[in-house]
Design a protein that fits this description.
The protein is α/β, with parallel strands linked by helices. Helices cover 55% and strands 12% of the residues. It has one domain. It has a five-stranded parallel sheet with strand order 3-2-4-1-5, with helices on both faces.
């Protein structure tokens, strides 16, 4: 049996709650308080047990040079980290493991002719709002867990199969909102995750590599499926390194 690189896929929320087009965001708490910084440190110590040789982040591939310069500035002590999970997890973990660079593997571009979420809302307002209402309830539950649980416990909880599948099901419900819903999910959402998958595999160059991919939780279901079914890598989860 041929040797395959190990890929640890970690789903997370966006710590800085950016306006990045996501349906909903957690309000959460500040990740820069002493207590949260200690929790991040505890999580990084566990993640370091994976001994990553590469780290890949949800950052546009076309911005690789900017990411490289930013990471170099951090290692040189010339950059103060923000609350962004790419900084708090990606930069700190890469530095902790002595990595020279970080890889940007995201793709998120406009495609002509694909309906927007606003169009879905206009065409099917009642059904769209019903989906959003269910998602809002689920996000409120996650927000409470994020506030109450230590960070590592929270990450374990949201990376379970059930939670990952629930988030994916929201996109399948959107796909059922007529032709526009199907177009948005298939030609944008699925296409985006296929592009991310392609970038991940392109960045895996040696069979003995240990690659950590840190991504928004909504992407985890499809990335798990694609990476597993490709047969090209050995996919691991957070639970695998905590046993």
């Amino acid at each position: 049996m041929r040797s395959r690189a190990a890929v640890l896929l970690l789903g997370t929320i966006h710590f800085d709650r950016p306006d990045n087009g996501d349906l909903l965001h957690l309000r959460g708490v500040s990740m820069l308080t002493p207590d949260r910084q200690k929790q991040i440190e505890d999580a990084l110590n566990v993640l370091s047990d994976f001994r990553p040789t590469k780290i890949m982040l949800e950052s546009p591939s076309e911005h690789q040079q900017d990411l490289t310069r930013e990471y170099a500035a951090y290692r040189a002590g010339k950059l103060t980290l923000t609350a962004d999970e790419r900084h708090q997890f990606g930069f700190r973990l890469a530095s902790q493991n002595g990595l020279d660079d970080i890889q940007a593997v995201d793709w998120n571009q406009l495609i002509d002719g694909i309906p927007s979420l606003d169009q879905l809302r206009r065409e099917k307002p009642e059904q769209f709002d019903e989906i959003i209402a269910r998602e809002t309830t689920r996000m409120q539950q996650m927000e409470q867990e994020f506030t109450e649980l230590p960070l590592l416990s929270f990450l374990q909880k949201i990376n379970t199969d059930g939670r990952v599948q629930e988030m994916h099901q929201t996109y399948l419900k959107l796909a059922c909102l007529g032709e526009s819903g199907m177009e948005w999910v298939s030609r944008y959402w699925y296409y985006r995750n296929l592009m991310i998958f392609k970038s991940i595999l392109a960045g895996v160059t040696e069979p003995d590599e240990r690659v950590m991919v840190i991504y928004g939780l909504a992407h985890v279901y499809l990335l798990q499926q694609l990476l597993t079914e490709s047969g090209e890598v050995m996919l691991l989860t957070l639970d695998d390194i905590m046993i």
